[in-house]
């Protein structure tokens, strides 16, 4: 028998060089040398990895929930700053249950990818990076870090500088090494100086100490706040207590903390490794004990249900698990709080992508920066057959992005069904407020919004926004306002935009509910009595804004769009690929206030030709969404028939409106001669 030749293995990829152009990624800093040198700021990737959503909230003086995300070493699908193609990647959308989010990995300096910071900030949640030393290399790093008071201060300042530049809110400090007692004074200098520098640079920022090394230098987890770790607690903003505590430790720790009891975060390992209550589906048992003990809680590794493939699927198990957290801990974030308020219910992933009701891409995608305000949908474990199921359905049409809220089931003719969407804290002023929402429905299924208001005089009002007069249950509401429906030109068939204006000066919008009902039967066409009929409707978006606030975009002539790092590569038979960095800014130099930009490429043919599928070469192709004023196009296929490329930067406003493509800024590149 002949011996087959050994199969040749492809050469390993070259080591990552952050100075060279490539698809932008977020990555950690692995050595003190790189931290000291500030080389991160010279990276090609640095302009792309800045968070773009500022944080508007302050940390309240109540028990809080910290969530520490530790998953398979970190920097997975979330590292791709411009998004990826894995629509099944991990995400979080129960932000209304937490106050602080920590991005954790076992690398010296863990910098949160901007997608986490953007979506957390949007929901009022602070974001921390992690500084960790562990094992032998951690001991070596500590010897350098703590060699002098000056070195401790210098490295603290480097960490603070990174947080400010990248737009996150502070640090979790985890010193998982044994130290010499003589190093402790400089460790305290490091923690204190980092805390003070962060506070002066970012008001409201946090530095939290992890319960590991003691004041005597021993690596000895205390599982509570006591005299062995309190000296570190006293010079920073809180302590993350190790998760192997006993039932009385939360209350004992609260007593030691005094009036700072809510700065004690009792740890819970969701994987259940020696954690109180066992974690997993019993995580809420530990939360209940912490709640009674009057401290805060720190949930570690909530991606447990994703990593262990809990049944029946991730979407359901995630909603069920966080539903248990909600029942135990309660809702801690309220929105809407400010105007304009806009949500398309996007979870930051999907199987298609839409703009203004028109589907512009059928490709799967993942980009948590695109996540809109998430609805507070109560988890129903076993919905009954005669009820309406409420869910985010990625397979159904989206008005914007890849999300929606879908309502499906059966509904009696004169009945109505409500489902909570948001808990608000929005004080209305003198001006009327406009409400706009998009609906796609089947048959006589109708969808409205119920708005709950309260006043300083403890007066409550409920207003129903509905597309027609509702007689059968209008008495259930203080007022019914008939919306103005219209189909927006250019939308996909079936989307109807509903609009209404409300004047409620001095009232606070406290809750928003979806209301499912049926339209009145046509005259002389009564329905059969007692016949529950199939109900189906999709809510695409909600926008709330002041009536006088007009959406306006600068004309395309107001922008400067430039190309950098242009790189052509030949493929075959005259076809090429193009990689290029696009940047844009307003000519007058003012800072832009737009949250995101949709990027398209339009391939202009030498002559109009059609391929076998009948599509024209000059149809704009959606490339992705940018959340900074830069976008890197990597290996764009350029057929040989192409004469030039036009890149279109579609500007999108905070109220969800997007500039028309024909009015958007552009940049053109000639293909011929390249």
Automatic annotation (TrEMBL):
<dbReference type="InterPro" id="IPR005201">
    <property type="entry name" value="TIM_ENGase"/>
</dbReference>
<comment type="function">
    <text>Endoglycosidase that releases N-glycans from glycoproteins by cleaving the beta-1,4-glycosidic bond in the N,N'-diacetylchitobiose core. Involved in the production of high-mannose type N-glycans during plant development and fruit maturation.</text>
</comment>
<dbReference type="GO" id="GO:0006491">
    <property type="term" value="P:N-glycan processing"/>
</dbReference>
<comment type="similarity">
    <text>Belongs to the glycosyl hydrolase 85 family.</text>
</comment>
<feature type="domain" description="Cytosolic endo-beta-N-acetylglucosaminidase TIM barrel">
    <location>
        <begin position="75"/>
        <end position="353"/>
    </location>
</feature>
<dbReference type="InterPro" id="IPR032979">
    <property type="entry name" value="ENGase"/>
</dbReference>
<dbReference type="Pfam" id="PF25529">
    <property type="entry name" value="Ig_ENGASE1_C"/>
</dbReference>
<dbReference type="GO" id="GO:0005829">
    <property type="term" value="C:cytosol"/>
</dbReference>
<dbReference type="GO" id="GO:0033925">
    <property type="term" value="F:mannosyl-glycoprotein endo-beta-N-acetylglucosaminidase activity"/>
</dbReference>
<keyword id="KW-0963">Cytoplasm</keyword>
<dbReference type="Pfam" id="PF03644">
    <property type="entry name" value="Glyco_hydro_85"/>
</dbReference>
<keyword id="KW-0326">Glycosidase</keyword>
<protein>
    <recommendedName>
        <fullName>mannosyl-glycoprotein endo-beta-N-acetylglucosaminidase</fullName>
        <ecNumber>3.2.1.96</ecNumber>
    </recommendedName>
</protein>
<feature type="domain" description="Cytosolic endo-beta-N-acetylglucosaminidase C-terminal">
    <location>
        <begin position="553"/>
        <end position="672"/>
    </location>
</feature>
<dbReference type="InterPro" id="IPR057882">
    <property type="entry name" value="ENGase_C"/>
</dbReference>
<keyword id="KW-0378">Hydrolase</keyword>
């Amino acid at each position: 028998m002949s011996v087959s030749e050994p199969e040749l293995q492809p050469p390993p990829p070259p080591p990552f060089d952050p100075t060279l152009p490539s698809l932008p990624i977020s990555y950690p800093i692995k050595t003190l040398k790189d931290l000291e040198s500030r080389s991160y700021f010279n990276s090609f990737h640095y302009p792309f990895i800045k968070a773009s959503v500022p944080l508007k909230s302050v940390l309240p003086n109540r028990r809080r929930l910290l969530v520490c995300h530790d998953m398979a070493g970190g920097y997975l699908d979330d590292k791709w700053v411009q998004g990826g193609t894995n629509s099944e990647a991990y995400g979080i959308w129960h932000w209304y249950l937490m106050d602080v989010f920590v991005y954790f990995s076992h690398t010296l300096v863990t910098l949160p990818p901007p997608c986490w910071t953007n979506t957390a900030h949007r929901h009022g949640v602070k974001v921390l990076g992690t500084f960790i030393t562990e094992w032998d290399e951690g001991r070596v790093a500590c010897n350098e870090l703590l060699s002098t008071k000056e070195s401790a201060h210098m490295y603290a300042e480097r960490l603070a500088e990174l947080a400010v530049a990248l737009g996150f809110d502070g640090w979790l400090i985890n010193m998982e090494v044994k130290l010499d007692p003589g190093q402790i004074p400089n460790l305290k200098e490091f923690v204190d100086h980092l805390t003070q520098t962060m506070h002066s640079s970012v008001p409201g920022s946090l530095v939290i100490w992890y319960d590991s090394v003691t004041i005597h230098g021993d690596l000895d987890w205390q599982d509570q706040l006591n005299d062995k770790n309190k000296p570190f607690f006293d010079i920073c903003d809180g302590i993350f207590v190790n998760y192997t505590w006993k039932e009385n430790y939360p209350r004992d720790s609260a007593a030691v903390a005094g009036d700072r009891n809510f700065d004690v975060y009792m740890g819970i390992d969701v994987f259940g490794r020696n954690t109180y209550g066992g974690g997993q589906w019993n995580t809420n048992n530990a939360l209940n004990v912490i709640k009674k003990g009057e401290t805060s809680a720190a949930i570690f590794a909530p991606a447990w249900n994703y990593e262990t493939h809990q049944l029946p699927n991730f979407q359901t198990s995630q909603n069920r698990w966080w539903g248990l957290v909600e029942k135990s801990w309660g809702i801690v974030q309220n929105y809407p709080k400010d105007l304009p308020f806009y949500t398309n219910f996007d979870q930051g992933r999907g199987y298609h992508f839409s703009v203004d009701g028109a589907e512009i891409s059928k490709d799967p995608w993942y980009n948590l920066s695109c996540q809109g305000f998430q609805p507070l949908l109560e988890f129903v474990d076993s919905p009954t057959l005669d009820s309406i199921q409420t869910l985010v359905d990625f397979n159904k049409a989206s008005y914007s992005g890849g999300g929606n809220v879908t309502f499906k089931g059966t509904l009696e003719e004169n009945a109505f069904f409500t489902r909570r969407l948001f808990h608000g804290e929005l004080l209305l002023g003198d001006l009327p407020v406009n409400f706009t929402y998009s609906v796609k429905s089947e048959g006589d299924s109708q969808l409205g919004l119920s708005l709950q208001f309260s006043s300083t005089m403890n007066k409550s009002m409920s207003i129903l926004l509905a597309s027609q007069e509702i007689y059968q249950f209008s008495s259930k509401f203080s007022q019914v306002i008939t919306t103005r429906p219209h189909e927006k030109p250019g939308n996909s068939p079936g989307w109807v935009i509903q609009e209404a204006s409300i004047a409620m000066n001095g009232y606070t919008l406290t809750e928003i509910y979806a209301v499912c009902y049926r339209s009145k039967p046509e005259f002389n066409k009564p329905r059969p009595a007692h016949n529950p009929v199939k109900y189906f409707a999709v809510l695409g978006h909600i926008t709330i804004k002041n009536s006088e606030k007009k959406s306006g975009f600068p004309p395309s002539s107001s922008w400067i769009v430039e190309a950098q790092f242009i790189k052509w590569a030949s493929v075959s038979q005259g076809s090429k690929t193009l990689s290029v960095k696009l940047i844009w800014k307003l000519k007058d130099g003012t800072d832009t206030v737009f949250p995101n930009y949709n990027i398209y490429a339009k391939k202009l043919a030498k002559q109009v030709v059609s391929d076998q599928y009948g599509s024209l070469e000059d149809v704009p192709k959606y490339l992705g969404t940018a959340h900074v004023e830069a976008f890197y196009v990597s290996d764009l296929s350029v057929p040989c028939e192409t004469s030039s490329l036009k890149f279109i930067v579609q500007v999108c406003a905070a109220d969800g409106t997007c500039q028309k493509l024909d009015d958007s800024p552009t940049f053109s590149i000639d293909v011929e001669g390249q």
